[in-house]
Amino acid sequence: MSKHIPYKIYLEESEIPKQWYNVRADMQNKPAPLLNPATKQPVTFDDLTPVFCDDLVAQELDDDTAYFDIPDAIREYYKTYRPSPLVRAYNLERALNTPAKIYYKFEGNNTSGSHKLNSAIAQAYYAKKQGLKGVTTETGAGQWGTALSMSCAYLGLDCKVYMVKVSYEQKPFRREVMRIYGADVTPSPSMTTEIGRRINAAHPGTTGSLGCAISEAVETATTYEGYRYVLGSVLNQVVLHQSVIGLEAQTACRKYDIEPDVIIGCAGGGSNLGGLISPFMGEKLRGEKDYRFVAVEPASCPSFTRGKFAYDFCDTGKVTPLAKMYTLGCDFIPSANHAGGLRFHGMSPILSQLYHDGLMEAVAVEQTSVFAAAEQFARVEGILPAPESAHAIRVAIDEALRSKETGETKTILFGLTGTGFFDMTAYEQFNDHAMGDTIPGDDELSGSLSELPKVD
């Protein structure tokens, strides 16, 4: 007899993961190494430590260790908002009249409103452990900056945030939450850094991008003594920390004999998608189980579906190491869409390699269809999703409707990465029919892709 599935499956505090899982250890084709842009040789530990914390560099470069112990201090902080629930979307299933079973892992139940806190507290912890004064970072929609400002306040670290200019203007309340927690928030590109001034001169009136903000944050970190740069997505270390999402989801599924057929996540830089799918992908890589994995990105910034798998800078100012990833070119500046967390020109090297090897799929969706799905979800499930999360909701609904057409009883799991209470300007535009869909033309993409670094 099958178990009754409660609406929300909660784990005990004792079931919060004690280790992070490193999916690279089970990948036959490892992500290509980061390259020093000057020498085109793989970066070393010493190359990265002037920019990143020492312990984080060790995690970044380790492709072979399957599990990393989570320090007790981080697990204690996790207890303030973890474990997070795995929710059976009964109401959505009924509204869609679908035979599909829909689950979502909800990561928005903390003050930062998103999954970003999982890595922010880890990176802040290692900065504190190293005796640093503070950290610098970029943020798009503001979830990462908020999470990092919370973590720095908790540990007594200074926090300097460069926020993509369009989001700085669209989301003033998220900016103010960062300031409440003591962060110094600057719209990017700014006139306070050499790189910011250069970008503004080259692109007058630009609304900015994550690539621009990364450049400014790295410059600041390497200019001020006692600071290091931390990043909210893309890097291997971030996917590692975010594996707590997938590990908890996996434990909850096992408790109730839930076997997902398809696992879906929104994809900007890859942190939440990588965290959600890593333990399940590990099972697939080891030949233990099989799943479909679907990355959902905005049609306005389609790095997976229209980008190139190549080495590129992670930032517009071209000061970072080169990463082999699906990219639109570091000079690409996407339209001012409202999913600010999905406006990065590239994708996690881990996820890029998995996608390149055919182990996961990707789909690009338009902004108006995303907001339609968000409101449909909110009206029946009672959670107002962030625009980023709503990309996964859009495709989860589409999968459920296909099940309705075919009669398949498939099980769908998606990541609900955050709440949208600071995104009301976007919802207002959607409800006023003032929102459009901007999709880059082939000429625009070919222009930025033509400037990729030459790597043999």
What tags apply to this protein structure?
456 residues; alpha/beta; Rossmann fold; 2 domains; 7-stranded mixed β-sheet; 18 helices; 15 strands; 16% strand; EC 4.2.1.20; tryptophan biosynthesis; Trp_synth_b-like; tryptophan synthase activity; L-serine hydro-lyase (adding indole, L-tryptophan-forming) activity
Question: Mind explaining what this structure looks like?
Answer:
This protein has 18 helices and 15 strands. The chain has a 7-stranded mixed β-sheet with strand order 1-4-5-15-10-11-14, sandwiched between helices. It has a 4-stranded parallel β-sheet with strand order 8-7-6-9, sandwiched between helices. α6 links the parallel β6 (134-139) and β7 (158-164). Helices cover 41% and strands 16% of the residues. The termini are far apart. The protein is of the alpha/beta class and 456 residues long. The model has no long low-confidence stretch (mean pLDDT 94). The protein has helices spanning 45-48, 54-61, 72-78, 90-96, 117-129, 143-155, 165-170, 172-180, 194-202, 210-223, 236-255, 271-285, 303-306, 349-356, 367-381, 387-406, 424-431, 442-449, and strands at 8-9, 19-21, 67-69, 86-88, 101-106, 134-139, 158-164, 184-188, 227-229, 262-266, 292-298, 308-313, 322-327, 361-365, 411-416. The protein folds into 2 domains: 78-113 and 244-450, Rossmann fold (3-Layer(aba) Sandwich); 133-225, Rossmann fold. Belongs to the TrpB family. One of its GO terms (cellular component) is cytoplasm. Its EC number is 4.2.1.20. Its cofactor is pyridoxal 5'-phosphate. Pathway: Amino-acid biosynthesis; L-tryptophan biosynthesis; L-tryptophan from chorismate: step 5/5.
